[in-house]
Design a protein that fits this description.
The protein has 129 residues and is α+β, with helices and mostly antiparallel strands. The chain contains three helices and six strands, in the order ββαβαβαββ.
């Protein structure tokens, strides 16, 4: 899929973060600045579109429209072989979390000794000392 072409947005069955499979979905991709969250890039997508399949293409297209150096920050959906190859080809700087579906990442997190962690004041988080 070429993100630069005009394509109709299909409002269709897709993944619902609200666990509402009865509702149809559409995707809104938004890139914002880190200094005030100013919208810099907006794109609509079909409800069944995969983040992993499109993230790299969106960032590559965005980088062609800007004329300053930037670092792309994305969730773990960016971390796929195709996206990493595209980011390298386009010479983009990026930060992402390696998904736990990669065994090495899961094992590294498990290897962290729990006695070195202390409960945080925020529920679900720990601090490392």
């Amino acid at each position: 899929m070429d993100v630069t072409q005009e394509n109709p947005i299909l409002i269709t069955q897709g993944y619902s973060r609200d666990h509402r499979p009865d509702l149809k979905q559409c995707i809104l991709d938004l890139i914002v600045s880190s200094d005030g969250y100013i919208p810099l890039f907006f794109r609509g997508g079909s409800g069944n579109e995969s983040d992993k399949a499109i993230f790299g293409k969106i960032l590559a297209e965005y980088s062609k429209q800007i004329n300053f150096e930037s670092i792309m920050v994305a969730d773990s959906a960016l971390y796929s072989e195709n996206n990493l190859n595209l980011m390298k080809e386009e010479k983009l700087k990026w930060i992402s979390r390696v998904p736990f579906s990669i065994k090495k990442a899961k094992n590294l997190v498990k290897a962290l000794l729990s006695e070195k962690l202390q409960k945080s004041e925020q529920k679900g988080y720990s601090k490392r000392y």
